[in-house]
Structure formats: C-alpha cells, structure tokens
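User: Design a sequence. Structure:
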C-alpha cells in the first residue's frame, strides 16, 4: 500500500471540483494501513466473541481464501450468529471513531459547505459480500435516511464507500451513473423473499440510459466520497474472496432529506 495522505495535504479544490461535477470522487490512499489493520482486528474480535469458533483465532489476513471458507461455513451453518456479527459491527467504537475522524469530517464539511456542527453521521457498517452468488447485491438505487422518505432530495448528504480489498469489474465492485446526483428518481421498494426479508431497492434501468456508467476500481485504503443522490449499483465479479467494504453516511441537519431521530439498532440474537 502506498503512503496514505493526511487531510492537510489533500488538494481540496480539485477534489471538490470532481465531486460536484461527477457526484463522486475517489481519494487514493486515504486510510492508512494501521487504521485498516485495526478495522480487521475489530471484525476478528467480534467473530471470535460471538461465534466462539476458535478456527478464526489463527487467521492473520482476512483477505484470504481460508478466511472466506470459514466465514462462508459460519454464515451457512449459523446464519443468526453471522447476522449478529454483522449487526454488531455497526456499534463498534473504533469504526465510529475512524468514520468521524478529523480528515473525514474535513472533507464532508467541504462537500456540503457547512460547519462541522451541522453534520450528522447517521449510518455506518461493514459489508461482507460473499463470492459467487450473493442475494444481498443491489441494483440501481440512491441512498436515503429512511425508506419511507426515500424520494426526498438528498443532495446535502454524503456516502463513504471504502473497500478493504482490491475492487474492480472482474473482482466485484460498485458501478455509478456519472453526474446522476442532480435529481431524485422514483425508487421501487420491495421485500426480499429469502430468510432475512430485507428491503430491496431498484430504479428502472431505462430511466438511466443517458448516463455514463463507471465501475469503481480501487485499492485497499482508497475511499469513494459520493453524493447520496448519485445512482449506483453492486457489481458481482468473480473473486474467490469476501468483499469487505466500509460504508458510512452523513447529512446536513438543515437539508430537506434530514429526518429527525436516532439510528435504531435491533440485535439479531
């Protein structure tokens, strides 16, 4: 991994220009190797504590087929335990501290043109997308605070998408409709029919024909800062490894899309 950049050395004018024009910007080498090793350790600690499976104890590198095989078996054999691990990541103090660090907030306040006191961080998690067939991948959609208010204007909201492994069209990634952040689309909401009954989001692809599509190519440590109005979707890829991605969202308290209230966490077990 290349040396990460401190926020004071970032070319904020160029970054803002790209963000405002395309609806997103990729900041290379944003998170340090030290920061990401601590994120890895956070996940490993949760897995050992909640699953009580000692097979994970000697895993040093989570971006390996050995870890993927063990986690795949855990998810298949004990889905409630795997769900509890996933949910518990959301309340990790280290994940919260990383995603509200000075360098993150510095960029968010510049994108939104607000003071730090206006910024709310209302969502954070780590996705663990298993290789091959994955029922949790999303088709074209825009982000929001709550599904009942998904068609409000979220142009004053920012999403962070930070892969913890190399991502590309071949390996699996995210695809973005370039410059799609200037309007809201009608987002269809459905319930999945599998065991977890999570919400499924989609925008009709024919409404997006005029947008250039870009698949994100990133290395571990790179971060995508994306307007919450920006239309995006999952890309499956053919990697044999779990695709772990940190995701977090921020919003200006004065914006139309802000919905007063607290984030709700419901334990899986």
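Assistant: Done.
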């Amino acid at each position: 991994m290349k040396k990460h950049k401190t926020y004071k050395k970032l070319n904020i004018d160029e970054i803002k220009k790209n963000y405002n024009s395309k609806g997103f910007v990729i900041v290379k080498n944003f998170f340090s190797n030290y920061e990401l090793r601590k994120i890895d350790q956070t996940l490993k600690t949760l897995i050992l504590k909640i699953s009580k499976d000692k097979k994970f104890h000697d895993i040093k590198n989570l971006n390996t087929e050995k870890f993927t095989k063990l986690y795949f078996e855990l998810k298949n054999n004990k889905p409630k335990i795997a769900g509890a691990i996933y949910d518990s990541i959301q309340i990790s103090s280290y994940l919260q501290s990383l995603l509200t660090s000075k360098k993150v907030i510095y960029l968010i306040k510049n994108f939104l043109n607000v003071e730090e006191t206006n910024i709310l961080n209302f969502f954070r998690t780590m996705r663990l997308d298993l290789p091959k067939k994955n029922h949790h991948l999303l088709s074209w959609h825009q982000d929001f605070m709550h599904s009942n208010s998904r068609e409000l204007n979220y142009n004053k909201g920012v999403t962070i998408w930070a892969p913890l492994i190399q991502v590309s069209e071949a390996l699996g990634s995210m695809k973005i409709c370039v410059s799609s952040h200037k309007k809201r689309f009608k987002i269809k909401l459905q319930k999945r029919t599998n065991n977890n009954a999570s919400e499924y989001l989609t925008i009709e692809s024919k409404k997006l024909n005029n947008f250039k599509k870009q698949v994100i190519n990133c290395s571990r440590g790179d971060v995508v800062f994306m307007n919450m109005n920006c239309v995006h979707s999952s890309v499956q890829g053919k990697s044999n490894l779990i695709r772990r991605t940190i995701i977090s969202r921020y919003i200006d308290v004065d914006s139309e899309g802000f919905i007063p209230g607290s984030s709700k966490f419901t334990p899986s077990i």
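The chain has a mean pLDDT of 90. The chain has six helices and ten strands.
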